[in-house]
């Protein structure tokens, strides 16, 4: 990849980081974030933000056939018609120690899962859990098998009919959990859970290997062997099956690893698990604090993810799209070298536009400069700042300077730029954004990326995880 194109990627990342790191104000009466309403319904944006926080997990995809397809769903109301998010909360003060609540991201109760060990004797586990709707209707039970080669739960409908069983696989190279449907004509597991169960970050796959759900421990987890999860479920999947499986996995894993919570990380970081990068945190002062942002629609109250995709077949070789993890285009960047002559200096100009075509800013390469530098220009032609490669750093560093600000760089990018694995720091040294290659790639695509030195890829993705200032009532 040409050095000029690599620098463009850094400049774009810096520009996007600055555009999105901005203090937000909400009225104290609002139960949700009002600032996201400009790009869709509040409820949808809330769970989109929840999905964006699940860095390191792929976006679930619609299965080839509905799950289940040969029998009715446990709860028709939970047969998803679109990608949906749920919060699975373990109740730390439950009398049985086995109580969960399933809610929407807005806090609306969907299911209650409660029960406990029927033989409360140390070393003996024989529990039974009930799945009950918010209206009090039982839809299923999870009944632990007293005698089994591996930990297993029978999943039964409310009328006592056996739907299937959830069990830990016996002969897998890594820990795997499987859900089998009773009398399934196709045979084999209907769902399979794989991933890091100790870090509470895993996926559920269909028979064809497609990821149809993801489960990650929520950032607000505080310890005490009590876990809260965010569960993302694809279209055409009975979410009650996914949620039941997640509860079983939680129970079996905690049972087999009673000391894991005391000796492990207090708050597993999904970003660190995926790429070894720190989770961004809020800076001491707003970025920027003395002027409007480049794009007010990109301000956020919580840690938010973006995907920066280079379009491999673009005519200029400089076209990018910025998406959320659901694949919705938020920004487009296009342009190229104004002097595409071999041996001539690179003098390119890139334009950042919204999905609807509105211009946000332009990145204009300075023709004559001591070090590669791009001016960041607002649509009205006023200079917002500049992005340049530092001249005197011991290691390669890129900096963002605001026009008229004499306090030094407002953002500094450090890390491995050749590996596309770096972070942005504020003036106070806080990591406020991180960039890593391919967070939302599929497993197959990630394996291809590992062969990049011997394979010429048409395009590559960068994932940004950006933390804004905390909310303040206004």
From TrEMBL:
UniProt family annotation: Belongs to the LOR family.
Keyword Hydrolase attributed: no
SUPFAM superfamilies according to UniProt: Tubby C-terminal domain-like (SSF54518)
Superkingdom classification of source: Eukaryota
Phylogenetic classification of the source organism: Eukaryota, Sar, Alveolata, Dinophyceae, Suessiales
InterPro entries, per the entry: LOR (IPR007612), LOR_sf (IPR038595), Tubby-like_C (IPR025659)
Tagged with keyword Lipid biosynthesis: no
Name of one Pfam family that matches: LOR
UniProt name for this protein: Uncharacterized protein
């Amino acid at each position: 990849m040409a050095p000029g194109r690599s620098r463009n990627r850094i400049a774009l990342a810096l520009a996007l980081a600055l555009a999105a790191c901005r203090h937000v104000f909400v009225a104290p009466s609002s139960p949700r974030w009002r600032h996201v309403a400009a790009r869709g319904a509040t409820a949808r944006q809330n769970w989109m933000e929840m999905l964006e926080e699940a860095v390191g997990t792929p976006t679930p995809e619609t299965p080839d056939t509905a799950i289940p397809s040969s029998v009715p769903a446990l709860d028709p109301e939970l047969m998803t018609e679109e990608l949906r998010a749920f919060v699975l909360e373990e109740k730390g003060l439950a009398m049985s120690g086995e109580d969960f609540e399933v809610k929407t991201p807005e806090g609306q109760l969907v299911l209650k899962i409660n029960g406990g060990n029927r033989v409360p004797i140390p070393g003996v586990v024989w529990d039974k859990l009930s799945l009950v709707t918010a209206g009090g209707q039982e839809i299923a039970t999870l009944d632990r098998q007293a005698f089994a080669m591996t930990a297993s739960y029978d999943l039964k409908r409310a009328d006592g009919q056996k739907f299937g069983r959830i069990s830990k696989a016996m002969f897998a190279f890594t820990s795997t959990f499987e859900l089998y449907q009773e009398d399934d004509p196709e045979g084999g597991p209907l769902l399979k859970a794989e991933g890091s169960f100790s870090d509470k970050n895993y996926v559920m796959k269909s028979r064809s290997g497609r990821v149809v759900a993801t489960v990650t421990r929520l950032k607000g987890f505080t310890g005490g062997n009590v876990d809260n999860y965010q569960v993302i479920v694809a279209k055409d999947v009975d979410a009650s099956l996914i949620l039941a499986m997640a509860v079983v996995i939680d129970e079996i894993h905690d049972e087999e690893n009673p000391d894991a919570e005391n000796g492990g990380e207090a708050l597993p970081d999904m970003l660190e698990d995926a790429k070894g990068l720190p989770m961004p945190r809020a800076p001491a002062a707003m970025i920027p604090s003395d002027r409007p942002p480049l794009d007010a629609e990109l301000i956020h109250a919580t840690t938010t993810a973006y995907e920066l995709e280079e379009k491999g077949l673009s005519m200029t070789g400089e076209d990018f799209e910025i998406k959320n993890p659901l694949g919705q285009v938020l920004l487009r960047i296009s342009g190229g070298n104004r002097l595409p002559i071999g041996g001539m200096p690179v003098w390119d100009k890139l334009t950042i536009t919204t999905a609807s075509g509105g211009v946000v800013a332009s990145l204009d390469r300075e023709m004559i400069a001591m070090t590669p530098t791009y001016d960041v220009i607002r649509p009205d032609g006023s200079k917002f700042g500049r992005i340049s490669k530092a001249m005197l750093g011991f290691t390669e560093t890129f900096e963002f300077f605001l026009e008229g600000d004499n306090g030094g760089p407002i953002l500094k990018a450090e890390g491995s730029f050749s590996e596309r694995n770096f972070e942005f720091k504020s003036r106070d040294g806080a990591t406020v954004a991180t960039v890593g290659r391919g967070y939302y790639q599929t497993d197959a695509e990630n394996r291809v990326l590992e062969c990049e030195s011997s394979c010429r890829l048409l395009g590559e993705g960068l994932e940004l995880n950006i933390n804004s200032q905390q909310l303040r009532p206004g």
